[in-house]
Design brief:
269 residues; mainly beta; Porin; 12-stranded antiparallel beta barrel; 12 strands; 64% strand
Length: 269
């Protein structure tokens, strides 16, 4: 079934119903802290995120991209922090029914950082496990990676510019053929009022591959997103749209998928 761009507005109106039946949230963005605390703190920060984005795509396996994520700073020792991230991604299609749970991906991450002025250097251990939803899959699809992340935030008259760069070596893998993973993300926020702001995010990622798949080249993907942030008493809602290119979009079929999207995200800050 095709999903034309004109149907996105109708899908967006169904998001509330989707949330009543599914647990979804957006990827944690691993934001830098504006400043370090004056002394060590336990459970100093948390961010819980929930999101759903409607995808305009001709493949009936890809209709919604949904997330539930939580990120905790377990300990902030002033000169850095120890952080844990858990993210569950459900990709929904329309092959057999509306909101068909085609794919489930789990990401767990532990990290520890050191601050150097306004820059934060982070050692990261990341685990990703990919699964088909209600379809048979006998082969494990997963990878562990270890590497370095750099975080930096610039602020000027209420405007914020965040930068994140990752470089990780794959240390263990099943079915996947990745060797080195790289990520780049930058987000600009511009306030319109004390409770509203515009923002834009550019994200790029890539993977070098081994020789287990003949004639397969290194993989590249990315995402561009613009939206508005609405700040409430207990959290933030983001309404956004953009476009994405995802390599290895299917856990077992090594395909590239590209789609525009519109969605929303609710988070604690």
């Amino acid at each position: 079934m095709s999903n034309p761009i004109g149907s996105l507005a109708g899908r967006a109106s169904a998001v509330a119903a989707l949330l009543l039946t599914m647990s979804v949230s957006a990827f944690a963005q691993r934001e830098p802290l504006p400043q370090a605390p004056e002394h060590g703190e336990f459970l100093s920060r948390y961010d819980f995120i929930m999101s759903a984005a409607a995808l305009s795509n001709n493949d009936p396996r890809f209709s919604w991209d949904t997330h539930w994520a939580g990120e905790l700073d377990l300990v902030d020792y002033k000169y850095g922090r120890m952080t844990f991230l858990g993210d569950y991604q459900a990709i929904l299609g329309e092959e057999f029914r509306a909101f068909d749970p085609y794919q489930s991906n789990y990401r767990l991450e532990a990290s520890g950082s050191v601050r150097a002025g306004k820059t934060e250097f982070v050692g990261v251990f990341n685990h990703l496990s990919r699964h088909l939803g209600d379809r048979p899959k006998t082969e494990a699809v997963a990878e562990n990676s270890l590497g370095l992340r750099v975080l930096r935030r610039w602020e000027d008259n209420g405007r914020q510019l965040d930068l994140r760069m990752d470089l990780r070596k794959v240390t263990a893998k099943a079915y996947m053929d990745y060797n080195v993973l790289g990520e780049f993300e930058t987000t600009l926020r511009m306030p319109l009022s004390p409770r509203t702001a515009l923002y834009g995010t550019i994200y790029a990622n890539g993977a070098t591959v081994d020789d287990t798949v003949p004639d397969r080249k290194n993989q590249y993907g990315g995402r561009a997103e613009i939206g508005v942030r609405l700040k409430g008493t207990g959290g933030v809602m983001e309404l956004y749209g953009g476009t994405e290119r995802m390599y290895d979009a299917d856990p077992l079929e090594r395909i590239v998928a590209t789609w525009p999207f519109v969605g929303f995200r609710v988070r604690t800050h």
